[in-house]
Amino acid sequence: MPPAVRFGVNYTPSERWFHHWLDFDLDSVRADLDSIAALGLDHIRVFPLWPYFQPNRTLIRPRAVEQLVALADAAAERGLDVNVDGLQGHLSSFDFLPAWTRTWHRRNLFTDPDALDGQENLLRTLAAALADRPNFIGMTLGNEVNQFSSGPHPDPDRATPGEIDTWLARMLAACEKGAPGRLHLHAEYDAAWYQDDQPFTPGQAARHGAVTAVHSWVFNGTAQRYGRTSVPSEHHAAYLVELSKAWADDPHRPVWLQEVGAPAPLVPPEHAAAFTEATVANALDCPGLWGITWWCSHDVSRSLADFPELEYGLGLLTNDRRPKDTARVLERAAREPSYAAASRTTALVVPADPAVRSRCAPGGPVFDAYFRLVADGARPTTVLDIRAADREHLSARGITETVTADQVLEGGIRP
To answer: SUPFAM superfamilies this protein is in (predicted)?
Structure first.
């Protein structure tokens, strides 16, 4: 039997949001973790803000590291495992970069030798501090760090795909050195799969690190273009899980749906539970799913200013730790026995060339063809065009039929 799917949540502290690291209150954290554990979830993803932990390139604050370990230990007491994002980075529209990388000390995050040394040191230090904790899952390099590498970021740190390859290998090696044998990975927002000029590529996402991480947000044009209750909106997370498999060298590489949420107003609060239920059910129908980690645990307090409106209400729990209907949906899924999703035997052919990956984005022919198949009752996966005739690869993945987007959209393919 395959391992059970993990269910967890991205931990957003109910008091002071991620600024809680400045005035760390372990009792408040424990109360938050109690409310998470009560839902039957088994893990959290934690975000130490980079400038608070490494305010100078050669200074990693010991007290901050101790607080991170204390949080992990409090999670263990409640049966929760912990994944830690290291270079944090970017959250909820705010960038958190240390002063030694910006303005007068401007350094490219992906290519500058001093910046690389500093990042490597932080990742190794955080991993090593948690290495002996049984509930430590491993490190994620950072939250959607690819948004720093290209537009639409207003001040991107430009890099080539080759330079990103080098950066990923070095940073993951630092995590492994700090905590050997743990589940270390990296995670990007969906520009890695959809944006032609992104230096973070689908191949990197599916080949570097222990698992592939996907982040699914239907405010990327999916809900706007197709509607809240459309097949593309309710299956978008599952699509990213299956799309990622086209680039994986390992035919059985696990995929972690590491971030997914119900964003208002595209998904109004009164419809969030139905959206959550559909998204989770469709993701669970993907074989090889490592886990689902919802965004996020607690709402952002209205006392904090300047967040995009949608960010305030994304929590499974309110700011005073009361569970919403979405929490009950995830709770039911987490408490029910997991089942093994059957192999997907039909594969939609996708272009291997990352310069045309926008064909896979909302409005693109691959995207539309995939959801035409889903709407017609199929359970498709994807395969690269350069592997579509590779019988050994197809057999290893259980694929018995391949179709192209043109064939589907011209109406010649039906399940």
So the answer is: (Trans)glycosidases (SSF51445)
The answer for residues whose C-beta is within 8 angstroms of residue 381's C-beta and 6 or more apart is 242, 245, 246, 344, 346, 347, 348, 397, 399
Rounded Cα distance between 65 and 196, Å, is 38
Could you tell me which of 402, 377, 375, 380 has the C-alpha nearest to residue 391? 402
For the chain, 415 residues long, the average pLDDT of each consecutive 10-residue run is: 86 97 98 98 98 98 98 98 95 95 96 98 98 98 96 96 98 98 98 98 98 98 97 98 98 98 96 98 97 98 95 96 98 86 96 98 98 97 98 97 97 61
For the entire predicted model, the pTM comes to: 0.97
Q: In terms of C-beta density within 10 A (0-12 exposed, 13-18 middle, 19 or more buried), how is residue 304 classed?
A: middle
Q: Which regions of 251-357 does DSSP assign to beta strands (E)?
A: 255-260, 289-294, 346-350
- By three-state DSSP, how is residue 210 classified? coil
Give pLDDT, residue 290: 97
Instruction: Provide the token pair at 205.
Output: 């996402």
Write the DSSP string, 8-57: EEE---TTTGGGGGGG--HHHHHHHHHHHHTTT--EEEE--BHHHH-SBT
What the block records as the tokens of 159 is 């890099």
Q: Specify the CATH class of 6-335 in words.
A: alpha beta
Q: What is the pLDDT of residue 339?
A: 74
Which tokens in the block code for residue 107?
């350094």
Token digits for 325?
């209907």
Say how far apart CA 244 and CA 264 lie, in whole Å. Answer: 26
User: Residue ranges per domain, the chain?
Assistant: 6-335, 346-409
- The answer to whether residues 214 and 237 touch, using CB atoms and an 8 Å cutoff, is yes
